[in-house]
Amino acid sequence: MTILSRSLPSLLVVAIAAAGCGHDAVEEVETETAVEVEVKPAVVGEIEGHINVTGTVTPAPGADWTIVAPEPARIAELPKAEGDRVAVGDVLVRFDIPTLAAGVSGKRAEVMQARARVESTRAAVTRVAGLVERGVAAQRELEEAKRDQADAEGALAIAESEASAAGALAGRAVVTARFAGVIAKRWHNPGDMVEAAASDPILRVIDPAKLQAVASVPASDVPRVIVGRPGRVVGPGGTVEENVTVLTRPAQLDPTGSVGEVRLAFTGMTRLTAGTPVQISIVAESHPKAVLIEAAAVQHEGDEAFVMIVKDDKKAHRQVVKLGLSDGEQIEVLSGVAAGDRVIVKGQNGLPDGADVTIES
Q: d(Cα 38, Cα 360) in Å, to the nearest integer?
């Protein structure tokens, strides 16, 4: 509904001088014209509070793997390039680590020696036991033979454990894909010498089917975040929009921190790629039966918020309001306006309390 008014009440005084020495009486003419405004009624509806923050698209935990060398080594083989897809079990890196091969050989030799000693001590126990039965050897000799056998078996167990560990380490000389994905980054080439440190990575593999959005939420807004609530992710330039849901939020914040990390899961496959900066809007609160007016209707004077409403006397009335949630277009009124009240949404700036208005349907 639109309310039209054309001007404020004015007083026009016209003085007419009489001919000769006399004057006619002053005639006062008062005219009124309304100020042009537009109104819309307050309605009852649902409104949501949003937390609007920045974030980044990133792989989910377990879907992001950075490969480093097990120890200083030379890269013997690096068959995948950036952007290549990989399947589970594909060879990603083969290292040339001579010390590992030598270590495995040495440990296997120790195992063979330990087994030979075990066989020897077992045979000794059998032989001495027979001599004890015939009364040729003393019981003490049999006990000593059994102790030697126990020591030999213990040494064998240690040697086998060390050989197994050496073999496992040697197995790290060949790195195969743990999951299907793509090569997101490649830092080295075959023949390069690399260190066994996170500061000297070789490959980064990610699973693009398991991407999430990570939002940096101000500490003051973290308590408003609820797991399972929906949200919206918008890519650079607003060209890509995706629906998400809150997956995790910080259980507690570092007292010195200003933001908390909130992870959101995409509700479907996303067209965004890992590392993309995004704008994220998270639904915090939801009020299903709120009294709503257009946000443009609200004016402020100091700490006080007010609107202009039109009553049956066809005048604009200043009404102080208490506000709640806002989505940018609509705003919740907690007090001061009831559903159905006609609120001026255009032309209210500078309009005095009590100004005459007319309504055009």
A: 9
